[in-house]
Each structure stands twice: as structure tokens, then as C-alpha cells.
Known about the structure:
Layout: H1 3-6, H2 18-46, H3 67-85, E1 88-89, E2 97-98, H4 101-111
Antiparallel strand pairs: 1-2
Amino acid sequence: MSAEEHIHYIPESPGIDNRAVLLCALGALILLAGTIAGFHEVYRRGVPVKDVLAPQAFPQPRVVTSQVEVEERRRLTGAQQERLETWRWANDQHTLVQTPIERAMQLLVQKGAAAYNPLLPPPPPERQP
Length: 129
């Protein structure tokens, strides 16, 4: 026998009724639709519906400034700017000097990584008896 004789295809007769398959599929779809409808009804009855209020427009804030407040702000800003831009003693003993902010930044850049080293050496360790 040749190989071609063994490969001869003979279709089998269908042993399953197509109507039974379609009825099972239709039944599954009806069951799915009923389950979804049931869950929707449970959700609709169980979750209270709250009415959403219409959005309200808030009034624009009113900023009322008097001439006194404007002058006070200018005075405070000027005092702060003066503290940042002037040299002065930082303590009453005249041991610490406050430098202007621009000069302090220049000094930090010049020191590089050493700028973050402690200013004072650590205290000597205490002796244990």
C-alpha cells in the first residue's frame, strides 16, 4: 500500500445535534442576562440616590488694602532686605559676623565640598573613671 491510500480523508458524520448546542448557548445567555438584571435591581434598591446639587459660583475674594497695610508691608520688606544685604554683628559679644547673602554664597562656592564641614572641632571625649 502506498502512503497516499492511508491518507485518504473520510469525514465522520456529526454525532451532536446542532439544535442542542444552540439551545444550551441560548440558555446560558438568558441566565447571564437574568443575573445582570438581578444584580442591577439589588444595586438600585440598596444604594440610595442622592440628588446632586447644582454647582454654585463662589464670589470673587475681595482684597481690601489700606494705605497703612501697604506701608507696613513695604517697611517689613525693606527691613528684611536690609538684613540680607548688610554686614553686622550677629551677637552682643562681637564674635559672630553676619555677612550679606550674596557674599555668603560666594564663600560657600569657594570652599566647595569643605563648606559642609563643622565650623568648630568636636569636643574632646570625656574620661570614664
